[in-house]
Every structure is written in C-alpha cells, then in structure tokens.
Amino acid sequence: MGYPLLQHVNDPQQLKALPADRLEPLCEEIRQFLIENVSKTGGHLSSNLGTIELTVALHRAFSTPQDKFVFDVGHQCYTHKILTGRREQFGGLRQLGGISGFPNPRESVHDAFVAGHGNTAISVAIGMAQAKKIKGEPGKVIALVGDGAFTGGMVYEGMNNIDTLNNLIVILNDNKMSISKNVGSLARYLTQLRTNPEYSKAKANLESVLGAIPGVGAPVVRVLQAGKALLRRGIYHSTMFEEMGFQYLGPVDGHDVLRLSELFTNLQTQYAPVFIHAITVKGKGFKPAEENPGEFHGVSSFDPAHITDPDVAPDASFSTQFGNDLVELAKTRPNICAITAAMKYGTGLQFFYRRFPERFFDVGMAEQHAVTFAAGLASQGMLPVVAIYSTFLQRSYDQLIHDVKLMNNNVVLAIDRAGLVPGDGETHQGIYDTAFLSQIDIPVYAPCNYAELDHWLTVVVDRLSGPRAIRYPRGGQSPTLEALGCTGSAFDCCLSSPEASVALVSYGSMTEEVLAAAEQLRQQGVNADVYKLVQLYPLPEGLCEALLRYPTVLFAEDSIAAGGIGEHLARRLAAQNYQGRYIHKGISSRQSLPHATVPQIRNVLGLDGASLAALVCEEQHIEDPS
Q1: Cα(307)–Cα(304) distance, rounded to whole angstroms?
Q2: Is 81 a catalytic residue?
Q3: N or C: which end of the chain has fewer CB within 10 A?
Q4: Annotation marks residue 282 as catalytic
C-alpha cells in the first residue's frame, strides 16, 4: 500500500513540520507499514504497534541526539527507527547486513544505547542524566519502559537513585491497565494542570519561599506535602513513584498523539524527575496481536491474511516438544513445578500451565528471582524446572552459584535458545551457558533432535540430583539430525569411515555442520569420523580413549571458546598424553555476532561445514576442498 504522509517524513525535523491534524493519520500509516514489513522479515510486532503514538509524540517534542531516548526493552524502537531515516532499510530488518531490531549507536546517532535485555533503561537513563549534569550539557533523557520491565528488580534499584535529576523523564508504557472513567477524568485534569510550566514554576517558588521562613517554613512545607500525598492516595491509590522522588503524571492515554505531544512539550522545563504513566494497547491496530499479544511479541514471517491460533496449533519446535514432554513427566511426578521468567509461550510452558496451573509460576522479567525461587522450592522437596532462554540465564549467575550450587539444590535448568539465535544479533545469542555452567560444576546435556530430548529430559529429571541443565536450540529439528535417532548413549560415533585419520566432534545442532565437514573431507580423499556428544559436562567416560587414536581431532561448538567444552576436552586429552593435532573451533570473545540467519552467522564465524573442513585441511597441509 502507499504511505502518502510517511514517505515525506524521513527525519524528526520533517515530523516537527507536519501539521498537528496530520499526526493521527501518520500514526495509522506507520502501523500499517510495520504490519506489512514485519510480516515479511519477522521481528517484534505487538510491542511496536503499541508504542507508535508515544514515539511520534516524543520526536515531536524533543530533539535527538541532544535528547536521549532509552528504550526498555529495545524491541520497542521500530517507530523510532522509521522516524530517524531508516524507513527504506526495513526490508533488511534483522537480516545480514541490514538494520538491527534493537537500538544501536553504531547504526545511528539517534540511538542512545544498546538495549536487548529488560529492566536496564532507568539505570542507564540516570547515568546519562547525571553525566549531562556533570558536563553542563543541555537536553533531556527519556526512558520508555514497558510494564513488563517493572516485574524485574533492577527497575526499583534505579528508581531508588534518581536524586533530583530535573532532566530525567521515565515513561511507563502500561498495556495492561485501563483508565477508569470516574477517576480518570479528575486525574487527567490534574495532569493537565500539573504539566503546565507556570504551575510547576509557581509550585517550586512557593515551596522555596515558604521553606526560607525561619523556624516555621520547613514544617509548613512538610504539612503541604503531606496533604498533597493524602490527596494523591485518594486519586491514584498509590504514591510509590512520588515517594521515590518523581513528579507523577497520569494515567494518560498512550494513543492520544496530540495530547501526548502537548504533554511532552510542556516538560521542556521541569523541576524534578518526572514519571509519566501511559496506558496503551499492545498490538494495537492488528486484531490477532491485540487478542494474543504474547504470541505476536516476537514473530517469524507470516501471512497477515491467514493466521491460526498459535496456542492451539503452535509450530513444531524444541520448545513445544519440551513443553509437552514436561507435561507427561509431571502427570506421574507431583513434585515437578515449572517456572518461567515472562516467557510462557516462548519456552513451551503454556501446555504445563493449562494442565497444572497450581504448579506453574510465571515470575515476570525476573531471572534472578526465578532461580532463587526454584532453590527455595527444591529445599522443600519440590523439583522445579526453570525454563529460560540462554541469553537471560546469564543474568542469574550469582543465584546459580550461591542459592543453587552451594547447597546442591535439586533444580533442573531447561535452557532454550541455546547456541546461535537468528535475527536478534549480539544481545540474544545463547553462547555462554556451556562455559559458565561447567565452571561451577553443573552437569549439562545437549540433545540434537526431538528423540534425544524426549529421552534425556527423562534422564535429567529422574536419574540425576542437584543442579543440572539440558539445553536445546531455537526452532525445530533438522531432517539430517532427526535421522540420527536416539541411542541413549552419552556420546555416539555417528559416522565412521575406514582408516579415518580425523575425528570431528561436536554437540547439539552443530552436529549437522561437522557431518557436512566430513562429507567435504571425504570428497578430498580425507576420511573422517564424526562424534556427537549429548553429555557435555562432565565429559562422558570413554570419549577421550576413543579419540586418542586419531592424528587430528577437531572440536567445533557454537558457544564461547574460552572456558567452553572444547577446552575441557583439550585438558582431558593432554592429561592422557594425546600426541596428535587438536583443533578447537568455538566463538571468540572478540567476535561480533551479526543479526542474520543461523547458517549465515555460522559462515561469518567459520563454523559452517565448509569452513571446518578447510580448517582441517590447513592443519594437515592439504589443498582446500572447497
């Protein structure tokens, strides 16, 4: 479709020049643009449909990069990107060489901070606002925070340290609460009054004059403030934000772009940190997303005209396989509990929730609490299964050490999105869990297909004790790995060649790449055997003994190399006096991971079959088979 207004808005200055009566039609064009483009590339849809008017109003009133917009989480930034010169690049959203799905200062001067994980914006914004004060720089710092982020503790740690920053504005994007008519009318009137610069100035001057009266000034000010607090309790039912030092404004309609523009413009002069409570509809303007915003939070490409109920018929994936497997186990094990950190659908736990709601816990965007809560459950004889994305598990590392491992609590970690993750780039890769879990002696298992997941989840639940983890990738199983089936062994030699001089070793979905490397080497006249691990840590008994006979051993993993499983294997082989060439190919901490498909990322990192085969040939001084 055409976009008659949007095609002429390529930067914030053009937005500011647009007549006010064109703002609402512009927002509708942006809404349709997002649906059209995200349906083709995939991305975060619901959150962006709900923040269009807020973002338009912010750019109408403020001026980036002097004013800083900090998004929490960063996936709310699509409208911001459209308005700051990147509309034409949306065909490459989250694609190799295209624009990121998150803010990135390396991409644009209008992006203030990388923001891939939640709860961080207020702390970041406070730091930026303090820096502006120290350096005497003009401009505001505005944190746009989704209500989901307020389920994580770091938000409150930040709000406890706002000081008297009169260049800080926090916007709560609340897409769950509604505006009550009888209370909302008065609240809106008071908000309009209190956002008037003359009112704010008079209020500040009055308190300053009264406070200066010897002997009686300060008590009078305290009485006035206490009276206002009582009034606010009657109106808002809560004064938490004001008691932490904010001037609270709201609730306001987060889709009234004209009112929002007026409100933000009036905040050019402020005398305290401001907290704005905006009510929005997540997924607004796209009925399937409004009805099921969780499922349309992050999507692959889809046909907007043909959408099935994802809760009834979700795509086959490791997540849904895990979710159904856990339900089957829980039917005969009443002590199993399931925990998620705001990712019920993403982790496949919607099935458990429907079957065992009393044993299901969504703790919100609070990974640290999820792990320590699990430790508490385990200490009382329950068996908690914490289903969590690898990239978010790293947020709870302290809790894993102190609250789970130290007491050897009986906690199962089901690590979703392990390894390389498409689209989201450097902020969401699941590449660290193998290293940091093995460093604290937590057993780790990595099935490569559904059959192995079925078998090894039962093993992990029933036969092991203490903390342990099972990890699996995003998406579904590949046909190549599905064909391997499940032997039930901790490791397998899944490809054997006569008189092989090379052993290629890996685990999980990377097994497909070492199989491809073996085929490339075979075409070059080099015979290679392929070993696949399911038990990653501790390394399975017999593995090193099987590898000692090969002149060359290559271990490939789509995880961080430093401290990774490949280093554990190198140490074990050295201890057994291995005399051959050992090649460890993992991900360097110095490598930047692009937003792209998984095969593209592997190619960039040299972890694809062709690159691994070339690496072996280089070590053996054989001409590159490619």
Answers
A1: 6
A2: no
A3: N
A4: yes
Q: Which residues are bridge partners to 416 per DSSP? A: 389
Pick the catalytic residue from 81, 132, 395, 602: 395
Res. 60: pLDDT tops 60: yes
Residue 225 has a pLDDT of 57
The answer to whether residue 53 scores a pLDDT higher than 70 is yes
pLDDT band at 251 (very low <50, low <70, confident <90, very high): confident
Question: Tokens for 187?
Answer: 């609240």
Residue type, 147: D
Q: What does the block give as tokens for 590?
A: 């110095």
Locate tokens 């391997």: which residue? 484
What integer pLDDT is reported at residue 310 of this predicted model?
A: 44
The C-alpha angle with vertex 459 and arms to 458 and 465, in degrees rounded to 5, equals 115
Per-residue pLDDT tens digits for 402-424: 999 999 999 999 999 999 999 87
Cα end-to-end span (Å), the chain = 45
Q: Residue 189: is its pLDDT beyond 50? A: no
Tell me the helices (H) and strands (E) count for the chain, helix number first: 26, 17
Q: Which of 396, 441, 398 is nearest to 415 (CA)?
A: 396
Which one is catalytic: 29, 53, 242, 367? Answer: 367
Mean pLDDT along residues 299-327: 72
Place of tokens 């209500």: 147
**Which residues, at least 6 apart from 464, have a Cβ–Cβ distance to it below 8 Å?**
443
Active site residue: 31, 188, 282, 532, which one?
A: 282
Residue 191: its pLDDT value, please?
A: 58
Say how far apart CA 415 and CA 386 lie, in whole Å.
Answer: 8
By the 8 A CB rule, do 378 and 384 touch? yes
CA distance 415 to 453: 12
Whether the CB-CB separation of 85 and 128 falls below 8 Å is answered with no
97: region left, alpha or beta (phi > 0 left; psi from -120 to 50 alpha): left
The DSSP line for 90-147 is GGGTTSTTS--SS--TTT-TT------SSS-HHHHHHHHHHHHHHHT----EEEEEEG
CA separation for the pair 538, 344 (Å, rounded): 30
Return d(Cα 212, Cα 226) in angstroms, integer: 18
Biggest alpha carbon distance in the chain? 97
Residue 471 pairs with which residues in a beta bridge? 415
Map residue 270 onto helix, strand or coil: coil
pLDDT score of 298 more than 60: no
Asked whether 216 and 227 are in contact (CB, 8 A), the reply is no
